[in-house]
Structure formats: structure tokens, C-alpha cells
Design brief:
Number of domains: 1
Largest sheet: 7 strands, parallel
CATH topology: Alpha/beta knot
Strand order of the largest sheet: 3-2-1-6-4-7-5
Structural class: alpha/beta
Radius of gyration: 16 Å
Order of helices and strands: HEHEHHEHEEEHEH
Distance between the termini: 28 Å
Length: about 180
């Protein structure tokens, strides 16, 4: 096996990305404080054609050199908006036909490997603060909670790693 050169990767332009059909998935970052995590979520969202990222509460927004360091320009390709209040956003998305899911360890959560998204629906997944998770009053508004099965001693994943896993899972199940 030979490692591919960058010229062999068939990368598309930002304009071509924007014109592509997107995955019916929006990502909501609820008070995510790490600029590196924000940038990483942008990059994973670009890789799997996420339709939009909502940055809420204390979550920083582009342009920002620290976000760019991990996003590598994905903050220019993936559509994003800043919304101060996560609860108002969740209400608006639900009115617009989205099924809203918190990525959270909660009573009655659906294990990600058991999740069967409906290809005819649109989804929004909320990723929470690195310490406190998704706010309880936001969880209360959600249609469901999704939990990533974990089998070690920590039962905790970095928010950008968890986001990447969920984005990939939705991509596989909806395409």
C-alpha cells in the first residue's frame, strides 16, 4: 500500500461543497468552551456533509484562529449560525420538523448502535459542555437522548470525539 498524495484525494472546493446535497443533520453545540473542540466538530461536519452547525451560549464563533487551527477551513464550508439561547433554538427546530436529540447519558437514552433514524426525517443532535453536558432544561425539550455505548472505566468521551462518532453513525444510517 502507498499513502496517497494530497493531489490524489479528489478534494472539492468550498463552492462545490456548498452545492452538494447535505445530510439531513444539524449539530448544536450547547455551551462548548474548547475552541479546539469547536473546530474539530466543524471538520467532522465537513467530512460527512452535515447541513448546519448551531453555536449556542458561550460557544465561540468563527472567525477565530484557535477554531481555524483544528477546523482547517471547514468553518468556511459548513453553514453555521450563532444562537444565544439553546432552548429557543430547539423549539424553533422542532417547529420546522426536526427530531431533536441530545447526546447525553440519561435515563431512557437510546444506545447509538440501536438508533434507527428515519431517512425521511431531519435530525438535530445537541453536544453539550465538556464538564456539565447538555443542560437539563434543554434535555427536557428533546425528542430523545442518544448515548454512545462505552465499555471501559471512564464512560466519558471528548465532545469532539463523541460528535465525530455520532456524525459518522448518522451518515452511515442515512445515506
Amino acid at each position: 500500500m502507498k499513502v496517497k498524495k494530497i493531489t490524489e484525494l479528489n478534494r472539492i472546493s468550498v463552492d462545490e461543497f456548498k452545492a452538494k446535497e447535505k445530510l439531513p443533520l444539524a449539530i448544536i453545540l450547547d455551551n462548548v468552551r474548547s475552541l479546539n473542540n469547536i473546530g474539530s466538530v466543524f471538520r467532522s461536519s465537513d467530512a460527512f456533509l452535515v447541513e448546519h452547525i448551531y453555536l449556542c451560549g458561550i460557544t465561540a464563533t468563527p472567525p477565530n484562529p484557535e477554531i481555524h487551527k483544528t477546523a482547517l477551513g471547514a468553518e468556511d464550508s459548513v453553514g453555521w449560525s450563532y444562537v444565544e439561547d439553546t432552548k429557543s433554538l430547539v423549539g424553533q427546530l422542532k417547529q420546522n420538523g426536526y427530531t431533536v436529540c441530545a447526546l447525553e447519558q440519561a435515563q431512557g437514552s437510546i444506545m447509538l448502535d440501536k438508533l434507527a433514524p428515519d431517512k425521511s426525517k431531519k435530525y438535530a443532535v445537541i453536544l453539550g459542555n465538556e464538564v456539565k453536558g447538555v443542560q437539563q432544561d434543554v434535555v427536557d425539550m428533546c425528542d430523545c437522548c442518544i448515548e454512545i455505548p462505552q465499555f471501559g472505566t471512564k464512560h466519558s468521551l471528548n465532545v469532539s470525539v463523541a460528535g465525530g462518532i455520532v456524525i459518522w453513525d448518522f451518515f452511515c444510517k442515512l445515506t
